[in-house]
Write a structure and sequence with these properties.
- The chain is an alpha+beta fold and 156 residues long.
- 28% of the residues lie in helices and 33% in strands.
- It has a four-stranded mixed beta sheet with strand order 4-5-6-7, with helices on one face.
- It starts with 7 loop residues before the first strand and ends in an 8-residue tail after the last strand.
- 18% of the residues are buried.
């Protein structure tokens, strides 16, 4: 697998773009108040999607490795923006929700998320250089853990 990631953006109309990555297409658009047609996520929403997707893929891979069975797994993120331009994230809060019918070793769920948010998730590693990312874990709707993403700075 190449260490180079590429994407292309093709303008459609207004502020609507077709995003093309490998063989995949998606729409990127803005809110109606800014001239968009609201036909897809905006760039900052795509960034939160990338964060949730990157970490979520880590966590489900680790849960499989730990042989943890579950009914559902969800990742939710909320980013708080600065009030002045350029409006950037000043913090992001994430919530990992796992639902299961059977008793599990909760320490393995915590370990899976903590590993994602301290070692594996490249998107989180990049974003924590700019703002804090905090997270909580819920098991069957009960909060069992809270922490903050922490990565060593790398220049490679």
């Amino acid at each position: 697998m190449s260490s180079l990631i590429q994407t292309d953006l093709h303008w459609l109309q207004g502020i609507t773009f077709d995003v093309h990555t490998r063989e995949h297409h998606s729409l990127m658009d803005g809110h109606r108040e800014f001239g968009g047609k609201d036909r897809g996520p905006n760039p900052k929403e795509f960034l939160l999607n990338a964060l949730c997707g990157c970490s979520g893929m880590d966590v489900v891979s680790l849960l499989k490795k730990y042989k943890i069975n579950y009914k559902s797994f969800d990742v939710h993120a909320e980013g708080e923006l600065t009030s002045t331009h350029p409006k950037v994230f000043k913090s992001v809060q994430m919530k990992y929700s796992l639902t299961t019918d059977e008793a599990i070793d909760t320490s393995l769920f915590i370990k899976a998320v903590d590993l994602s948010m301290t070692q594996y998730c490249g998107v989180s590693a990049m974003l924590t250089q700019a703002f804090p990312i905090t997270y909580s874990l819920e098991l069957n709707n009960a909060v069992i853990h809270q922490s903050q993403a922490q990565f060593q700075k790398t220049n490679t």
